[in-house]
Amino acid sequence: MKPRYSSVAVVIPARNEEELIGRCLDSVLVAAAAVALPVSITVVADGCTDNTVEIARGYPGVHVVELEAANVGSARRRGVEVALGAASSTVWIANTDADSFVPANWLVEQLRLAHRGIELVIGTVRPNFADLSPVQVRAWSATHPTGVANGHVHGANLGVSARLYEEVGGYPELPEHEDVDLVARCAAVNAVTIATARCEVTTSGRQYGRTDGGYARFLREDLLAAVPSERTPS
User: Is the pTM of this model over 0.70?
Assistant: First the structure.
């Protein structure tokens, strides 16, 4: 029997994102307004020393949780715990990042798939081209065709049913790749999963992130390496 969802919980970890958290929340609120279900928005301010907390609390209805873990896995896990509370397994959990902004159809598309029986949605992500060099933009475009679901896992665009999330034990308290770990455990229980490019999220194209690895390292080191013609001559 296909699951029926009663509400949506959006969870957003943030660490010193005062410059970008407003844009993120503006976009999430637009996406939330496009669906009929109640939508909660939880921002987990993890070790913030800037104005992230104050900015997020300026948005009516946004719940801000403060944490001092400096660990994105812990932040995501805590955010889901708070968002779900004692709620039933009929909650859909939509995940993004504070340095990202979502399209207006983000939740519409995730819920469309969820009501078809999908329990894990892996959405595409692209960097903000304004943050990249022309060479990086060309390399990205050459390796990431528009509209193609590549199945790459990004916490900035990930949807999962609360039932499945709880079955596999939730986000691990890892400093990075907590999203990949969660998806791997979902695959291990043969969760009904789909990759989609229909609700692509745009994320920061910064070259140095909050950890040594992750998306920033990919943009800085791996992107040009994947396109030999764009490598800088030595």
Answer: yes
